Amino acid sequence: MDVVREFRNGALRLRVLRHAAEAEVHGSWLTEELAARGHRVSPGTLYPLLHRLQEAGLLKSRTEVVDGRRVRRYRTTKRGKRVLADCKQVLADLADELE
To answer: What's the distance, Cα to Cα, between the start and end of the chain in Å?
Structure first.
């Protein structure tokens, strides 16, 4: 078991939720934004993650056509925002304990 990898995967989920809580996002934008923050995420990792978050009720999506291409845009649900807030508190508590 790779504990660091599991922690990073959890952090990745939280970053996706945070971005989608701030504004509507789409996969290619998320890929670029996450890469700028040190997360090299392939489409084969990102899109299944987005779908799992949606299935869990943490994200909602809509599809639109832009320049003849279908683009799926994601936004955090009310439940997703509550989960994000709860996770932020857990991380803050953990940070305090680790100091």
So the answer is: 25
Secondary structure in 3-state letters for 25-44:
EEHHHHHHHHHHCCCCCCHH
Residue with tokens 């997703």: 80
* 13-64 pLDDT tens trace: 999 999 999 999 999 999 999 999 888 899 999 999 999 999 999 999 999 9
| Nearest in space to 25 (alpha carbons), one of 5, 54, 3 | 54
Residue 44, token pair as written in the block: 């084969």
Record the tokens describing residue 73, joined without a space: 């845009």
